[in-house]
Amino acid sequence: MLTAITRAVSPAIHRCELSHLPRLAIDFSKAVEQHRQYQACLGDLGVSVVTLAAEPELPDSMFVEDPAVVADEVAVMTRMGAESRRAESQTLAETLSRYRPLRWMREPATLEGGDVLRIGKTLYVGLSQRTNPTGISQLAEELRPFGYQVRPVEVRGCLHLKSACCSLGDQIILANREWMDAADFKGLRIIDVPASEPRAANLLTISDTVIVPATFPATADLLRRLGWKVRTLDISELMKAEAGLTCSSILFETK
Predict the structure, then answer these.
(1) Among 232, 222, 207, residue whose Cα is nearest residue 41
(2) Per the residue annotation, which of 35, 160, 165, 166 is the catalytic one?
(3) Percentage of the chain with pLDDT > 70?
(4) pTM over 0.85
(5) Under a CB-based contact definition with an 8 Å cutoff, are residues 135 and 171 in contact?
(6) Sheet holding 122-127, edge to edge
(7) Is 160 noted as a catalytic residue in this protein?
(8) CA torsion through residues 122, 124, 125, 127, sign
């Protein structure tokens, strides 16, 4: 069964870390409702959703993707590049330990899950403001015994690798080539985001359905024309905190 771990929106989200966007006022009640709709959409698509309580003192804690990388055999708890976020790991680790053995990254490594794009047994990992070469090396060290390959990808102009590209399944990715090196994805088919929607590369694919932020209608239309089922969600308030669709859940298979 496909399982998603999510976390309720922190009431401190207005103090979130921002790297590439100006700070705008976030309507907390609207953000909570948008996140509820996100969780409901996952449930509608057959995902078993696990919801953790909000962390009032941790503004970015709803973005559960970043503190961990979950493989089939093990979960690696990361050491996040944003120091203010490192306390997010503990309660998430307690939950993940029910499903996977845990490994922990060590200083001076930094790595955030938003920089990790897994396609089969290959993990493409962004070299970004939040993830350093030591973090990538430690991730490779932990996963190598299970047959995974880890490939670094240079990221530029955006927060994480998955701000620049996402998997659509079947060895296909959606990408903004301005923000990453497409040569690192040799052998994969790349679909380019519409030029009018450069932030649209972070989408979430569940089976044969792609979830697209309502903010990106051209991208939704493109994917429909190419044969994907598309569901749109309004995450406009969450996007003010540099959210995409992948960062608000950790998806993995459970027995």
Answers:
(1) 232
(2) 160
(3) 100
(4) yes
(5) no
(6) 116-119, 122-127, 149-154
(7) yes
(8) positive
Separation between Cα atoms, residue 27 and residue 47, nearest integer Å: 28
Q: What average pLDDT does the chain have?
A: 97
Per-residue pLDDT tens for 61-104?
Answer: 999 999 999 999 999 999 999 999 999 998 899 999 999 999 99
Q: Peptide bond preceding 108: is omega within 30 degrees of 0, i.e. cis?
A: yes
pLDDT at 255 over 90: no
Clarify whether 247 is annotated catalytic.
yes
- State yes or no: pLDDT of 50 exceeds 90: yes
The token duo for 91 is 């309660």
- Give residue for tokens 């299970």: 146
DSSP 8-state class, residue 170: T
Distance CA 9, CA 31 (A): 7
User: Domains (ranges, CATH) in the chain?
Assistant: 2-253 (3.75.10.10)
Residues 62, 208: Cα–Cα separation, whole Å: 26
Distance of alpha carbon 127 from alpha carbon 136, whole angstroms: 8
